[in-house]
């Protein structure tokens, strides 16, 4: 139900934007916000969706842990500083909600069906610092690429809890560093800029906190577990 309402919201938003910005894709458009690119600093906000995954490497060959992904929600703000005519530095702190299910392969140590399933509910505060490389503006359209680094604080990591998977607690580290790559497009309307974008996020370090038992059926054979994610954001500024 939440997904349905979110999708309807964005469809209505995009429809309203299209109705008020028909000249963006016309042959000879009226140039909107012509002096906007001259601003040294500007601000905005974004809403969007995410899909988080784990990249898991194993110590020995074994059946894979299956990761069931869901669609999460993003919201945040943007501060943008112009460094050069086509290069901007952006800080985009935001709040990200997501959920993953880990399905572990059958193990004789599992005494009940729930032992093979772990739900990883995550609430992230995400701190990306990105460089935005814009192309030449054509009418009211300007594509761009962006990339940079980020740090993520997982408020639901269970990192400080002593219980482990024997007590149904799956634990990961609170902080993780990442690098990010993506692209998008600036669409200039009469009053604001709408920028849809897509971005890949790649965790750099192992996030897993191992169980106390080194031979744990949940964590014993995992060499590293790193975040992988896709963000689709709709930015307004």
Condensed summary:
By secondary structure, this protein is mainly beta.
Task: Walk me through this protein's architecture.
It is built from 1 helix and 10 strands; from the N terminus they run H-E-E-E-E-E-E-E-E-E-E. It is mainly beta and 237 residues long. It has one domain: Beta Barrel (Porin), CATH 2.40.160. Strands 1, 2, 3, 4, 5, 6, 7, 8, 9 and 10 form a 10-stranded antiparallel beta sheet that branches.
Give me some keywords for this one.
single chain; 237 residues; mainly beta; Porin; 1 helix; 10 strands; 8% helix
Q: Could you tell me the strand content as a percent range?
A: over 45%
Radius of gyration, whole Å: 21 Å
Structural class: mainly beta
**Share of residues in helices:** under 10%
Under CATH at level 1, the class stands as Mainly Beta
Task: Output the helix-strand order.
Answer: HEEEEEEEEEE
Number of helices: 1
How would a textbook summarize the main sheet?
10 strands, antiparallel
CATH architecture: Beta Barrel
Low-pLDDT runs of 5+ residues are: 15-21
Instruction: Please state the oligomeric state of the protein chains shown.
Output: single chain
Domain unit count: 1
CATH topology: Porin
Question: Overall pLDDT, averaged?
Answer: 86
């Amino acid at each position: 139900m939440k997904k349905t309402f979110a999708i309807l919201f964005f469809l209505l938003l995009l429809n309203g934007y299209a109705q008020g910005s028909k000249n963006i894709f016309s042959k000879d458009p009226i140039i909107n916000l012509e002096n906007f690119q001259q601003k040294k600093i500007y601000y905005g906000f974004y809403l969007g969706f995410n899909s988080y995954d784990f990249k898991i490497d194993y110590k020995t060959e074994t059946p894979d842990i299956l990761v069931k992904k869901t669609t999460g929600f993003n919201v945040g703000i943007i501060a943008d500083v112009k460094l050069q005519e086509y290069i901007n530095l952006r800080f985009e702190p935001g709040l990200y909600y997501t959920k993953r299910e880990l399905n572990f392969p059958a193990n004789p140590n599992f005494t009940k069906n729930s032992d093979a399933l772990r739900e990883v509910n995550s609430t992230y505060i995400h701190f990306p610092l990105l460089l935005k490389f814009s192309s030449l503006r054509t009418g009211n359209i300007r594509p761009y690429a962006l990339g940079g680094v980020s740090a993520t604080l997982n408020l639901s990591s269970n990192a400080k809890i002593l219980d482990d998977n024997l007590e149904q607690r799956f634990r990961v580290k609170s902080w993780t560093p990442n690098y990010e790559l993506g692209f998008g497009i600036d669409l200039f309307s009469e009053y604001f800029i709408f920028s849809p974008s897509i971005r890949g996020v790649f965790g750099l370090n192992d996030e897993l906190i191992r169980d106390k038992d080194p031979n744990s059926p949940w964590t014993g054979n995992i060499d590293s577990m790193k975040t992988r994610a896709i963000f689709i954001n709709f930015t307004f500024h």
